[in-house]
Sequence to fold (314 residues):
Amino acid sequence: MIVSLIVPCYNEQEALPIFYREVKRVLAGMECTPELIFVNDGSHDNTLSILRSLAAEDAAVSYISFSRNFGKEAAMYAGFCNAQGDYVAVMDADMQDPPSLLPEMLSMLESGDYDSVATRRVSRKGEPVIRSWFARRFYRLINRISDADIVDGARDFRLMRRAMADAIVKMGEYNRFSKGIFGWIGFKTCWLPYENRERVAGETKWNFWRLLKYAIDGVINFSQVPLSVASWFGISMTFLSFAAILFIVVRKIVFGDPVDGWASTICIITLIGGIQLFCMGIMGQYIAKMYMEVKHRPHFIVAESSREGLEKIK
Ligand code: UDP
Ligand code: MG
Fold:
């Protein structure tokens, strides 16, 4: 039985050796053939040379190296496209996804009741308060407006059966939001809660704006509700304006036409202009996604890999 571990790495030179040591220690105690697939997502540090030497020493290690930084989503997808295991897992290289959970996850899958075991953090210890607050709001919103079932605190760290990994490979969309994809494809998932850990070394690549953009992408990828909100805005504004016109016509007939209200007119015009631009912006977001989608660009470009056949460009 082969267990594939997909590890996206972006500037992880400090964390990688610690991660590798720990993962090897855990895997040694498991009855399986491991396959470690590291994906170097255009790192600027020594990540690639570390991966080269790991692959040279250890037959279980292989790596794919991108020509530039394509993002964690593309890195995970590259891993899924190349993983051959009967069970496949995604893990971060920074030890925030504890490898020590793997044996428990595997035995849960082997018991046969579930198709995947996913992890969720029960605390957000060590994270800025504002960030946690926004994250919680985001999860509440996206679950209300989309049919992708996304759990608060869910990590990308999960172990799944082959069938589920195949389904993920089939989801070949360009705009990828894995948390949504995992939920959308279905299958029976067991949630394993654990305490949040801070990364062992290096820095997080996600600042507030990158996370906000990620959240907006998530909503646009899995929900059409923003478009309906735009339509409802439009419809209610139209009704409101009709009522206002009626009111003004009646007032003109009854009281004559005193010329005032210039300021309020301008306010209303700018308000409507603003709402129109806002709604166009929402539409634009969807059109932009469509534009990227219809171009059919590859999700990633491989510059180098540890063995032949690892370069499936999807
Ligand atoms: N990562 C990646 N490409 C990126 C950003 C991050 O492959 O553009 C990897 C990173 O090396 C790590 C994982 O994705 O293994 C999670 O990143 P990070 O720890 O920075 O995110 P956080 O845990 O803070 O959400
Ligand atoms: Mg991390």
